[in-house]
Protein 1
Amino acid sequence: MESQKKYDRTFSFEFFPPKTVDGISKLEATSQLLAELKPRFFSVTFGAGGSTRDRTYETIIDIRAKSGIDAAPHLSCISSTQENIGQMLAGYIEAGINRIVALRGDMPSGMVEAGEFRHANELVEFIRRETGDHFHIEVAAYPEFHPQASSPTRDIANFKRKVEAGANGAITQYFYNPDAYFSFIDSCEKNAIDIPVVPGIMPITNFHQLARFSDACGAEIPRWIRKRLQAFGEDTASIRSFGEDVVTGLCQRLLEQGAPGLHFYTMNRAEPSMKIWKSLNLSND
């Protein structure tokens, strides 16, 4: 973990583009509350196959203007071309955006061809070629390994390609086993990878939703956590209380061991992340 201890802590929150007027209003309220914590940035996701391209742009511009917090749009390889990525980059530069989260992205059901960019390192290379050092580029990291990686060795090699292409930092897939993160950082250090790798944090508020997400993305819910959550049944209050304790403990251990910050997957809700933040007594001052 020595490589991570030298970096300043970065705290950030992730949203998805709302689909309805009510969703827009709720996200505005959420972002205003979280802006009071003074995070380094907010990020906004990019739907499978670029399905939220316009809404991602609109959400980024709106959040940044109303909250005063830097905003980072996600860009995805899937269904993207050099032309449309170039247009989006130009639009973000014009709007004063200087941070990007560059991902391979999810392949929509039924899609066969990924597009002109097959892997995230190719997208990072293109952004650097077209815009130089204008953007601070974050990429994804997978402490429990990408679900499509053929081996841990291949997975770390893929990550290194993204770093060599010009990534400034990384945000991990969420996890609940801190040893997976520590082992991943150890592998990075052994492979001369030296960028800040910020843990992705998913608050636990709904077991069935969490299980579905985790099964889809390959994030492991440790057996003891899964069994405890199952035992609560439909007792939402107990699930949330237990989940808050588990995730707060996880974050505390990560920060104590030298993790360079936390990135919260908010699901467009402020309260779960804010409770963990306050339990940790965090400050960005």
Protein 2
Amino acid sequence: MKNLSVERRMGDWMRGVLPHGVVEFVMFGLKMAWACLFAGLMLGAIIFTAVFWQEGASVSRYDFLVLFAVVVQILLLWFRLESWREAKVILLFHISGTAMEVFKLHMGSWDYPEAGIFEIAGVPLFSGFMYASVGSFMARAMRTFDMRFVGYPRYWTTVVLAVAIYVNFFSHHFLPDMRYVLMVITVGLFWQTRVYFTPLKSRMWMPMVASALLSSLFLYIAENVGTLTGTWLYSGTASFSFASIGKMGSWYLLLFVSFVQVSLVYRHVLVSDGRQEE
């Protein structure tokens, strides 16, 4: 499914009504919002239930969030607002994210203070969809902006790096934490990688490392939606408090793991020869 008809019609309509001078900027914002569709709906549901959910309801808040995520996924596929390729990415993220959640919960890194039926080892299944929303955003953005990653390093090196980062999220509880070393490696490995994208007609680019830093900032903001609504609670912090700024570094590293996972089904966007886009 190369083009989704609803997205195309929306884009054509906006191009017809926007002033020429601001069309590229506005279309960039609209496309980013469209790429964040699943993540935005999940955050909206978290905020809504935190404010309006009644204690003692027949369906727990956590279980509602699981059912909500499943229904949204079905509707996105039914109305062709999401491709089956993107659905595969979401499933992969759900599995890897839930595995990490189970381990981190066992180690006491954070907790889910409310009860629910749909859970694995105390981890509510909606948490896997929160990880999946990152993969959904990446996959949708790649398609919507016709992205190309130029000057991309050898693929096997990125896989090794992603595995090392993912393992460190587990091993740092028992062995020295290698996160800062891994951060330096990400900069060295992707220093020459450019992300090319098209908001409307103009072809633009930005360094991939800068893109990861900006994305980690937005993910940190989204992280605080969960903590400030009491949806999850980090060890050593009070209820309804901000997450530690150090979480931004964790998200920065996790983004590279996420990107490699997405690239398993989007290998065509990786370009090793920069001259193909110059």
Protein 3
Amino acid sequence: MAMKPLRERNPIIVAIVGLVILAALALITFDSANLPIIGGGTGYTAYFAEDAGLQAGNEVRVAGVIVGQVTGISLAGNKVAVSFKVKNAWVGNQTTAAIEIKTLLGDKFLSLDPQGTQPQNPGTPIPLSRTTSPYDVTQAFQGFGQEVSQIDTIKLAKSLETLSAAFSTTPPYVRSALRGLASVSHAVASRDAQVTRLLGSAKNVTGTLAAESATFAKLLGDGNLFLAELQQAQLTPTLQALDQVTSLLLQNQANLTKALALAGPYYRLLGNALGNGRWFDVYLCGVLPKSYLPPGTGPATGCEPPKP
């Protein structure tokens, strides 16, 4: 049975079918990462005690090699559930996961250590017993700043003064120590606002550096590429030319030695000829016979210069 030509079909039905096909193609295109065959890999979940600054989109690595990325972070009771995808890497049923520090500016990545004899079930999360989180220095400074800001330094100084008075009958070294402690507390109390501002500024600086870590990494990478290009494009031909020059000098070492030996007397005579002014000193000997010279003039024997 021959198929009916497209122009003879109902145009409304053709338009609806075309729109459905276009919508399906768009859905496949935008959600290709989640497809089982051409997608971004197998999805897993791991429980952590804290997220430690890990974010969706961070890298997943095995032995330093990028094998996937973090897809999501959510709260699961008193734990943090980290979802990630892995492609072209084996994940065993005893695999451990750790949040590692990628750069000093605070970037993180998820590190996997594949272990076990059977594959990890994607539907079973990696438990807390097989995950670890790093110690975040930036968060520690922020917490320290908040704690310091809540301390009543004036009351602390008065307490230390009272303690010093109570120990006034103790040996001198105890009283000196307490007086010094009271002085320190007074100094801290007088600088309370400055310390708080300092910690706040440190928080802003670390936050800014962490936010611009990608820029710093790209800058360092561009610097490495520039040095590599400079080495290949400039230094290599220069060193080759220098090698040719040194080889030529070695081949003509005897001629150079002879030229330098002859250059000394030549420049000495040239200096004598030009040493009396802006002219040449010239002495001609033996041009005229002695019979043509006045008596008593000229050298007695041979041809000698008038000045020794």
Protein 4
Amino acid sequence: MMRLPRFRFVAPRTIDEAAAALAEAPSDTMLLAGGTDLLPNMKRRQQVPRTLVSLRHVDALHAIDNGDGLTIGAGMTLTGLVRSQLVRNSCAGLWQAAAQVATPHLRNMGTIGGNLCLDTRCTYYDQTYEWRQAIGFCMKKAGDICWVATSSPRCLAVSSTDTAPMFQALGARVRLVSTRGLRTIDVADLFANDGMQYLTRQPDEILTDVIVPGQRGRRSAYW
């Protein structure tokens, strides 16, 4: 049985409280939404934060607002998105993308924000601690070599998120909040072409919303 390492757990009720908790020690703190990616990673000792800041009880992150387009809270579960007739009618491609993620059990827990910020992975990285120790750790965690391509100067682990490419195609943007303020960027600009530093979100920032512009006159699909 793989067990979680010890950690401190914080459960804020507002975005401001969450941002303040994250700002205390951003390099040793991680955000917990559904936990479908982070908790298995912690069991494999790929990520070992000293503090987890849970976003489950931050009500502001769980809404879908309908205006000129959609504003989707990052805490909305994938199941919640799939069950939304509003999303299905206005952004069929996004509905299809969310419906194809993993299994119903994981969609019940996994969130939109978590799916966008999903850790990159590869055959060698996604193994138990003991397995990785036996072959020699890779550069993504504790080593200095990329086992996918041993001559590569950088990590080649890749993203497996289904919603990100669809959000990009829809021209969506994300809001990032920290104690330093708010910034809004295109979903396309959230990602970097690097298996280790794969997000441009700063360690003290919380992805709070995804803003999808109006799609009137456009149709979308995802496969």
